[in-house]
Amino acid sequence: MSPVPEFTLPPFYCPLPAACSPLTGSAGDHALAWLSSYGFCDDPATQARIHDAQVHRLLGLMVPQAENEEVFRTLTCFANLVLLAEDLLFDSAHATGGLSGIIEQAGRVMRVMESPGYRATPADTPYELALIDVMARLRAESSPARIGRLTREMRRCFAGAIRGINALQHPGALTEDQYVSIRLDDVAGHVVITIIEMCGAEPLAEEVWQSPAVLACLESAGLIGALDNDLFSYRKESVHDLNLINVLQSTRGLTLQQAVTETMMVRDRVMQLFLRLREDLLASSSTPLRYLLVQLGQALRGHVEWGLTAPRHTMEDVSRTAADEAAAPAICWADNPSSSDATPLPYPSISWWWDQSGRPQGDSVPSRSE
């Protein structure tokens, strides 16, 4: 891999409070012992990945007020499996079967997730065995509706990842809108939102999930997380990976620094929309929706905090204790957005979000051509 040219990462605008769950440490210890019981820590490379990712800290920053402690601990285990899927399933499948192998592995994982009482066989991998266990625990702790949403969003995430891999394998004129529609799915933002909701005491009603205003708010948060990941992980990841920085260089002929700056401006325009939608909804939200929106605001701040300090992204060799206590310096945060443009972004996949600003929960607007 060739080194990434030097660039300056702009500060992140996120005028929301940061917090971390008091369950973070115990959930991390529990998850590590659980992963070890399935042999994941026997391989030094996998053990290092688990350490560097600091998934327990990410969950603690994104769900600082978990109302169901047992679900939070179990979801910390599940989140570790989601992160390991890239290495243990996608990368190994690529080596042995290309895209068809990835599709087969993703299909096997989904069948385990969607099958209550799945019976393990000698052909199942440690990953699948761990997934069987964690899904059984979640089914015992959560409602069927919540489990159903989690599995649907994981299927959506796999579908997005496969679409993204296909785009990388067949390079061409990938438009910015195509990138956005892929990234909304493959970065697991919808899975994270579902995880946050599952930690609440009361489930969110299906009609609220499907409200256009709620959907726009949640999806905008997911895209912010995706763009944040593009920005803080760019130095670590290959310049050939799928991210908006590379797409902007290709579509607009920008330099690396110009593309980084423009990515932050796109991100900040979406952030301002999210804040408006969130404020509209909080004014008349039910208790479950209020819980989700409050946690989600803190999750966006916590995700950047984690991304700027976790060894996974900083590539620094630090102890677990030091990583757990790391905090992004003040210079990483912006007091104001990098763009004040409040008009919709010119992407048909998401431009309808802006139509929902100022509308009561549950209202809809007629579709229109772009």
Brief overview, please?
With about 375 residues, this protein is mostly helical. It has helices spanning about 25-35, 45-55, 55-60, 70-115, 125-140, 145-170, 175-185, 190-200, 205-210, 210-230, 245-250, 255-280, 285-310, 310-315, 320-325; strands spanning about 10-15, 335. It has a two-stranded parallel sheet with strand order 1-2.
Adjacency order of strands in the biggest sheet: 1-2
Per CATH, the class reads Mainly Alpha
In which range does the helix fraction lie?
55-70%
SS summary, helix count:
15
**Which parts are unreliable, with pLDDT below 50 for 5 consecutive residues or more?**
362-370
Q: Quote the distance from N terminus to C terminus.
A: 40 Å
Radius of gyration: 20 Å
The structural domain count equals 1
Strand tally, please?
2
User: What is the overall silhouette?
Assistant: globular
Query: Helix/strand/pairing class, anyone?
Result: mainly alpha
User: Helix and strand succession?
Assistant: EHHHHHHHHHHHHHHHE
Q: Give the overall pLDDT as a whole number.
A: 88
**Sheet with most strands:** 2 strands, parallel
Strand content: under 5%
Description:
- The chain has about 375 residues and is mainly α.
- It has a single domain (about 20-315, about 330-355), classed as Farnesyl Diphosphate Synthase (Orthogonal Bundle), CATH 1.10.600.10.
- About 65% of the residues lie in helices and about 0% in strands.
- The chain is built from 15 helices and 2 strands.
- The protein has helices at about 25-35, 45-55, 55-60, 70-115, 125-140, 145-170, 175-185, 190-200, 205-210, 210-230, 245-250, 255-280, 285-310, 310-315, 320-325; strands spanning about 10-15, 335.
- A two-stranded parallel sheet has the order 1-2.
- α8 (about 190-200) crosses α10 and α10 (about 210-230) packs parallel to α13.
- Mean pLDDT is about 90; it is low at about 360-370.
